Amino acid sequence: MRHDAPGAHAGHPGRPGPAARLRSLPLLSNPVGDVSASLVVFLVAVPLSLGIAAASGAPLMAGIIAAAVGGVVAGLVGGSRIQVTGPSAAQTVIIADLVVRYGWEVMCLITLLAGVLQALLGAVRIARAALAVSPAVIHGMLAGVGVTIALAQVHVVLGGDPPSSAVAAIRELPAALAGAHLPAVAVGALTTALLLLWPRLPGPRALRAVPAALVAVAAATAAAVAAGLDVERVSLLASMGEGWTGPVLPDRADVHGVAIGVVTVSLVASVESLLSGLAADRLHDGPRIRLDRELVGQGAANAASGALGGLPVSGAIVRSTANARAGARTPMAAALHGVWVVVFVLLFAPAVELIPMAALAALLVMIGAQMVRPRHVADLRRHHEASVYLVTLASVVLLGLLEGVLIGFALALAVSLRRLTRLTVLTEERDGRWHVVVQGSLTFLGVPRVARMLRTLPTGCHVDLDLHVDFMDHAAFESIHAWRVDHERTGGSVDIDEVHENWYERSSMQAPPVGKTAPGGLARWWAPWRMRGGYDSSAPPTGLLVAGAQEYHSSTAGRMRAMMGRLAHRQRPTALFITCADSRVVPNLITASGPGDLFTVRNIGNLVPPHDRGDDASVGAAVEYAVEVLEVPSVVVCGHSHCGAMKALLDGVHEAPEAVRADRLRRWLGHGRAALERTPREALEAAPGAEALRALAQANVEQQLEHLLTYPAVRRRSEQGLLELTGMFYDLDTAQVRVLDPLQGAFVPVADGGVGSRIPGPRGPLGPVGGPPPEREHA
């Protein structure tokens, strides 16, 4: 899939999808949403820009210049609809080191040249190459930078100066604690408390929409002024009065170091901007980011910022997220936010000088802590890359950014090379047949081990050879082929199954069943019959089912026998999964679950009749059995896009007389009437057909979660913290799963890792329900 191409949604033939329509709209097509979003992002950007400039050892005005130039230039020139560009905390360590070594004026030159290099990389269409860096290295680098920022700014909160390195910050911390300046500590503590509590305070949504950073810094400033605290404050006017400082040429002896700085700033800014832009794409339904154009835009912004005396800039996911959630739809929002930054500084510079430096330092300590995300370790552990993350983090903190990234990159390469040599060979004799399983990467390095194992098999025996490999080179293929020829020449037989990550190829001598490919072809087990090679459209439906069962017996049943034998005596499902009977929704596929994991209930529209409605006992019986007898720790209600039941609700089928529609269907859809009523009618009428169905289907999931709470067993176990209720939504257009986040009141993607492994229960009229389930033993 090309990221340069506009996204598309299924819809009416010949009618452009939402993405195509948005691409054709001019910059001023969404004035209200873009203006309001620009104001929200501006409020976030001002304190962040000042804090990053202070932490970088740069003039505070450099942060303001970077925020303004980044917003306007990158917003109008770049290739992303909603990404916001500005000073980045991830580059603070790099900038501070370069400023100490070469001075601020040379740093401006480095920023300018890094921008030119970025633009050249974008012009030669090399943007995608920047994404080849291992995510473990990227996340480890960001975490290391976060730790370094937090350690340095803790000293400012304590009333001192930031040390030159993380090691020095750790070494000097006891002395800083002993000589802490109490007024600065009080300001920092108040700022930190507001940053933590503001998003969680009850009140109108409009009030809580005010950025926590702005509230915390403003409140700390007001408290410091009212109490007359003697604390160090922002010196913005002084830096403005010193006159403009732009880029200058370095000394001849420093040229080599400056060149390395240019490359470092360019690469870090490029990777961060592209990753942030791809993440921001998940926040809107418009055209996807054009990576090469975005890189050109980021380069132009950095060149302009360096020329005007500003900090390096890059795409920022925090500001981009605020931009999308505030209603931005075009780059005009990002550009306007830069304009507001300039207007604010020109009109309210004296007010900015009242801000205590301890408040900005506390804000940066929180930002640094948030850059260390433990869930990344859990995600990377599953891919056996946690060591790369941890080593990169420690190296950045102890040795420096460039050294840490190089060490992490080298370790990532070593881990990848080790995987190419990792191979497992298992043999088992059963009923006179030998079963050999080869797992891993089968290259020439593993050929001697596999060949030695195969040569030990008895002459003339039947061998089932399963190659569970992600890669097999020509040397391995030739070796196995030669052994097979020799074994069959001596009276033996060989049946080879080759199983790759996303496809199944059966290379036995048997003829394939209906719907499967011939030996050597490609057949995706997760694809419908009609989409597989060799599909016989004339075969009767029953014949396809029987053929599928035959394929199951020939390729899978033997491998599952031991596991199913253990599960046969008891089921301990992890969740009751209530979803629609739609043939396109496959619960085990979209949850990567297997036998014994899900206790599944499927019906028209994934509806749950309330407990006091006795006209349908089937769903209620399943709920009570799963909760009371099986004691599942989780109940999931999963809706999906393009749902026929939701379309029937919109069409008023549940209100139709019996003579018009089947009575049973009409009465059943009545259980979804409440979802229709909780969705604003004007919103449904204003949205396109597919979007209206999407909104109603998501509202229906929330409504059915509330219906579940009418069951005494569900309510009781939820209040005891033994049962968790979760809402899910499956988007057929993108094959993406979304999970209901009750704190946001919205369905958020799980593919970007933005959602934790466990979502709190839904927040309905009864308040938050559910909690972490107890540890369970799986059979």
UniProtKB/TrEMBL annotation:
Question: Where in or outside the cell is it found?
Answer: Membrane
Provide the coiled-coil residue spans: none
Q: What membrane topology is given?
A: Multi-pass membrane protein
Q: Which reaction does it catalyse?
A: hydrogencarbonate + H(+) = CO2 + H2O
What's its EC?
4.2.1.1
Domain (SLC26A/SulP transporter): residue spans on this chain: 33-387
Question: What is the protein name for this chain?
Answer: carbonic anhydrase
